[in-house]
């Protein structure tokens, strides 16, 4: 909302020394964010004066009409002689009062005025158009002023309002009242303790008879006013002051009838519509649209209407989409002499949905969907009709239509100290009651209890906290002390929070970059992952109002977001990428129904809580990672190493190791991984073996579906299950005795998993074994076809003595023996 300061001062007795920037600071601190203060005309300098056209000589012989004018500018030019000016405009005549920029003046945009010879004549100055002065956008000709506007030679900068400070306010959806000069003026008056003159305080005489016949649907419109005028002059121009204010407020001047409705809307916050009454057939009806109805709106678009749209219709059918845009058939034309002004209070939700459905965000719909004053319609329509009479020569009819189905606002009971308890500040006694009265509330006090009835222009005030907000913002948000919370002893991070942070640090240290993806997916994403139709991951929650129609589902796996992020990075030229994400997935419970809509005046009961719990999906926390290209980059230190399925498995091992959990790895098959390069990951919880995830190389079809490089790998593990498997934290026993290292190489069948050999060695080595680590895998002629050699380092240590070579050798032999028994391994060398 753009508010010229001079317009604001008409309704508020602001101190003269209050600048626009001072006011902007105060309003922003009170919750009306002033984004900018536009200082219009600061780049404009005089002399810019009124001039009277004395003589016009038409110059011929040029490609376009040119006129040589002699203009009386009084003593402004220093001589008192008429000023000679060459001008190409043709919308003025001898005797007209115009605006003249004399040599030395500078117009907006850095345009300097001087004296020069042009078209064979001397031109000393310029007769100005509205656009050249920055008044409004109009290139049709120069500004011709009405008689009596000013005397020749007088300065025109001030009277024309060429210099003006305009507040540009970012109005939030809950403060629709601030989309008007009236609303901003009321807050300004409250902040400065100044007198406020309500522009809606318009004297309205009772009707002398029935006006235009009308009917309303109370569910769509609870107040409807129609005021008619006759004898309107369609050629009457909008006055300069009105066009100037509309332009300063960001609204383009069109014609007098349209400009009047826009002016009153900006002034009072009530959108209006003006009809050519001669084009209306029968009574007007406010009703819902019927299936199949169409309407051509003022933007010349024929629109199919929805049964949820609120319409204004006559006997011929729809003539308006109420609160959004008028119809073309009843538009004010160049011959309209009978104007019917409409002011209605329409249901905000219907207007908001219609505006979005038809993609028509108008100044009218912006106000209706935020909520307008339900009692200002008669004053607004009367104000507009009187302006049409004053400026357009119309006669205001004394009979009019006023249908009122509004209900009185319910009072809100609140403690006087409620604002203090919310803000944590002890406000003075009576402050809450005083501020609530200032904003227009009716307040009845009974000790510490206030019974508050909000005003009609504040539909956003509905509960005690809204009232508290009003008190706090006028007392000053800046006066609320900043007291950082102090954590109680032992109230730090939970074990789960510490684990999640540790996992993130571990993966970052391993070379992965963290990403945060939206939790929304589509059927196309699941198809790209090659997930079978009967897979549980296909069962997902569908959003009622998705941000993107192609992603209406809540994710059941982290992989779609990760793979799309990987493809986006690769598409931007990054060849070596490793990403990870920690986040929730959403798994619907079998037989779950929609959660109940609970009242706000009480807490939920046990049964309601149970219904909510049953409707809320299971939300396990998972860790996923994807990688492609080189996992170890090449450089002066040596050649790089391409990322493989083993790196994805290692990422899972790193997550488990960070949690202090032993991860069991074996071959598996699970979409979207390659069936021959997929690892199933398990942990043990109290003797139960739980599947926690999968890792490996992605299936070629999944790679193609997401546009990824070949051999891309991925891992996804359930962090909640890994956390459940964490053993109790115990301080490790640190031995002071040296370690005994034994290497062993075993030849096994190529189909035997390395993890199975490692587990057998660990079990057979006994309690002296500290760790077992794979350091080599070899296939070739020396081990025979269909065989492989796996080499491990076994570390032995005792807590009470130094091991002898015989003890270490015996433990190694026992480990080899058990590996041979379980896997058919043969020791090499």
UniProtKB/TrEMBL annotation:
Residues 407-482 form the B5 domain. Residues 735-828 form the FDX-ACB domain. One of its GO terms (molecular function) is phenylalanine-tRNA ligase activity. It is found in: Cytoplasm. Its EC number is 6.1.1.20. Binds 2 magnesium ions per tetramer. PROSITE patterns: B5 (PS51483), FDX_ACB (PS51447), TRBD (PS50886). Keywords: Aminoacyl-tRNA synthetase, ATP-binding, Cytoplasm, Ligase, Magnesium, Metal-binding, Nucleotide-binding, Protein biosynthesis, RNA-binding, tRNA-binding. InterPro entries: aa-tRNA-synth_II/BPL/LPL, B3/B4_tRNA-bd, DNA-bd_dom_put_sf, Fdx_antiC-bd, Fdx_antiC-bd_sf, NA-bd_OB-fold, Phe-tRNA-ligase_IIc_bsu, Phe-tRNA-ligase_IIc_bsu_bact. Its cofactor is Mg(2+). Mg(2+) binds at residues 460, 466, 469-470. It comes from the Bacteria. It catalyses: tRNA(Phe) + L-phenylalanine + ATP = L-phenylalanyl-tRNA(Phe) + AMP + diphosphate + H(+). It is an enzyme of class 6 (ligase). Its main location: cytoplasm. NCBIfam families: pheT_bact (TIGR00472). Belongs to the phenylalanyl-tRNA synthetase beta subunit family. Type 1 subfamily. PANTHER family: PHENYLALANINE--TRNA LIGASE BETA SUBUNIT, PHENYLALANYL-TRNA SYNTHETASE BETA CHAIN AND LEUCINE-RICH REPEAT-CONTAINING PROTEIN 47. Tetramer of two alpha and two beta subunits. This is Phenylalanine--tRNA ligase beta subunit. The lineage of its organism: Bacteria, Bacillati, Actinomycetota, Actinomycetes, Streptosporangiales.
């Amino acid at each position: 909302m753009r508010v010229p300061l001079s317009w604001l001062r008409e309704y508020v007795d602001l101190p003269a020394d209050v600048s626009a920037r001072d006011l902007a600071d105060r309003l922003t601190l009170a919750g009306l964010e002033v984004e900018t203060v536009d200082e219009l005309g600061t780049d404009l300098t005089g002399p810019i004066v009124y001039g009277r056209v004395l003589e016009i000589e038409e110059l011929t012989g040029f490609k376009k009409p040119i006129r040589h004018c002699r203009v009386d500018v009084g003593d402004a030019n220093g001589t008192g002689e008429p000023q000679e000016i060459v001008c190409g405009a043709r919308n003025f005549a001898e005797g007209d009062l115009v605006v003249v920029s004399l040599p030395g003046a500078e117009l907006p945009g850095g345009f300097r005025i001087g004296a020069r010879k042009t078209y064979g004549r001397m031109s000393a100055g310029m007769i100005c158009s509205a656009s050249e002065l920055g008044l409004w956008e109009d290139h049709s000709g120069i500004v011709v002023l009405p008689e009596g506007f000013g005397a020749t030679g007088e300065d025109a900068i001030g009277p024309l309002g060429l210099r003006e400070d305009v507040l540009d306010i970012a109005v939030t959806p809950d403060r629709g009242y601030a989309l008007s000069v009236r609303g901003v003026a009321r807050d300004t008056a409250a902040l400065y303790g100044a007198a406020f003159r309500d522009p809606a305080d318009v004297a309205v005489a009772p009707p002398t008879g029935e006006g235009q016949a009308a009917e309303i649907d109370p569910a769509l419109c609870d107040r409807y006013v129609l005021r008619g005028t006759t004898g309107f002059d369609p050629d009457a121009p909008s006055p300069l002051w009105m066009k100037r204010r509309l332009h300063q407020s960001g609204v383009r001047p069109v014609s007098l009838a349209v400009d009047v409705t826009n002016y009153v809307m900006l002034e009072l916050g009530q959108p209006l519509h003006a009809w050519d009454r001669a084009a209306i057939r029968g009574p007007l009806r406010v009703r819902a649209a019927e299936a199949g109805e169409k309407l051509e709106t003022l933007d010349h678009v024929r629109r199919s209407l929805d049964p949820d749209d609120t319409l204004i219709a006559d006997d011929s059918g729809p003539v308006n989409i109420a609160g959004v845009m008028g119809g073309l058939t009843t538009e004010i034309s160049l011959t309209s002499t009978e104007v019917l002004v409409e002011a209605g209070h329409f249901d905000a939700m219907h207007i908001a949905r219609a505006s979005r459905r038809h993609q028509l965000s108008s100044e009218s719909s912006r106000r209706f969907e935020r909520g307008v004053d339900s009692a200002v319609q008669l004053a607004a329509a009367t104000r507009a009709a009187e302006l049409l009479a004053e400026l357009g020569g119309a006669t205001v009819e004394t009979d009019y239509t006023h249908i009122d189905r509004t209900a009185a606002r319910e009072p809100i009971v609140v403690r006087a100290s409620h604002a203090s308890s919310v803000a944590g500040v002890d406000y003075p006694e009576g402050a809450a009651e005083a501020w609530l009265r200032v904003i227009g509330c009716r307040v009845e006090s009974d000790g510490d209890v206030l019974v508050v009835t909000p005003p009609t222009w504040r539909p956003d005030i509905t509960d005690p906290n809204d009232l508290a907000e009003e008190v706090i913002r006028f007392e000053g948000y800046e006066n609320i002390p900043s007291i950082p919370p102090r954590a109680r002893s032992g109230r730090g991070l939970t074990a789960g929070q510490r684990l999640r942070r540790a996992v993130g640090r571990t993966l970052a240290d391993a070379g992965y970059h963290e990403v945060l993806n939206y939790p929304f997916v589509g059927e196309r994403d699941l198809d790209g992952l090659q997930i079978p139709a009967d897979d549980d991951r296909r069962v997902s929650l569908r959003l009622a109002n998705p941000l993107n129609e192609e992603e209406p589902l809540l994710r059941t796996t982290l992989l779609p977001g990760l793979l799309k992020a990987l493809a986006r990075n690769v598409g931007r030229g990054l060849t070596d990428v490793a990403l990870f994400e920690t986040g929730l997935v959403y798994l619907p419970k079998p037989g779950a129904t929609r959660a109940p809509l609970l009242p706000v005046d009480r807490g939920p009961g046990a049964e309601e809580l149970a219904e909510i719990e049953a409707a809320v999906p299971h939300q396990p926390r998972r860790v996923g990672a994807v990688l492609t290209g080189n996992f170890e980059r090449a450089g002066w230190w040596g050649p790089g190493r391409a990322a493989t399925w083993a790196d994805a498995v290692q990422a899972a091992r790193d997550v488990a190791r960070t949690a202090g959990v032993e991860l069991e790895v074996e071959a598996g098959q699970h979409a979207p991984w390659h069936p021959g390069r997929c690892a199933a990951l398990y942990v043990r919880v109290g003797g139960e073996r739980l599947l926690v995830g999968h890792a490996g190389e992605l299936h070629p079809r999944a790679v193609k579906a997401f546009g990824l490089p070949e051999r891309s790998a991925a891992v996804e593990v359930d962090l909640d299950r890994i956390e459940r498997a964490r053993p109790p934290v115990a301080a490790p026993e640190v031995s002071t005795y040296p370690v005994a290292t034994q290497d062993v190489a075993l030849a096994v069948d190529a189909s035997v998993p390395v993890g199975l050999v490692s587990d057998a060695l660990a079990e057979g080595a006994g309690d002296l074994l500290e760790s077992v680590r794979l350091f080599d895998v070899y296939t070739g002629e020396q081990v025979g076809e269909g065989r492989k050699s796996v080499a491990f380092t076994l570390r032995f240590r005792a807590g009470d003595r130094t091991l002898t070579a015989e003890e270490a050798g015996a433990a190694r032999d026992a480990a080899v023996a058990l590996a041979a028994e379980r896997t058919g391994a043969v020791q090499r060398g």
